[in-house]
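Practice problem: predict the structure.
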Amino acid sequence: MMVIRSYILYFLILLSVVACNDNGKQQVPVIDSTTLQMDSIAKAPDSLVYADCYEKFFQGLQTLNDSAHVVLTLRNGKKVKFAHFAANDMGGKYARYGIKSLDGDTIPELIMYNYTGGAHCCDELYIFGREKEGYVYKSRLFGGFVCIDPATNVFTFSLNETLGYFFSCYACGFSDSTTDFKTIREIELQYAGGRLQLKRYDSATEKQLFRNLEVLKKHGYQEIEGELMDNGWRKEFAMNFAVWHYNNGKNWNSTKTIFDKYYSFPDSVSVWKEFYTSLRDTEKESSL
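Answer:
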């Protein structure tokens, strides 16, 4: 009996060894990087990616002499003390503020900046104009990668946050083997006439934008994969459409004409609806 049990035990051990070897020979499944929902930026340390975009601007700017008593009139008409607003609405550790004339006149504006933190969002920037009783709300930007050129006072607003998840994961991006495609995702703004106004791109940028759209169209229809995502193809369409939209008067009829010309694919209705909704939602947060 003991001999039979020994043979059975030996046989089971042999089977387990064979099974382990077979598992070791199995190929590791390949992960499709185009559909992997992982934001590489989330692994970054707690620091600003574009720190220079605001540090250089605010460096050396004049501050308020009596900030505890200065009154701000907010967008909704409510009046609050500067100190209260700074502590409760702009209380991040990266918050900055300063006084500078953005439009070249002799009356400086109050500019306030805050970084909300998080994986990849958000820069929050307010512009207040001088009035008799303090400062009144003029403009606001809210999104990822808002930069200010200290020499020209030009604001660069990236559409990375607005359209970062447009039928795609944030880290996914369209790639083209030719040199015809160049990423375009930003618009420029300048403060004038008491508000932020678009600084229109040059003709070379517009020509490149249309080359991008041609490349994307010729690429052919990109199937939606897991969780309604592609490899970033629709996102690049949306980025270029958005930049064109803002640089051409924000005329929705004209933008739809451009959209229909280049995105004549089976899901055009749903893609247009998502594009339109995304930009309108952004304009509720930012003065675009």
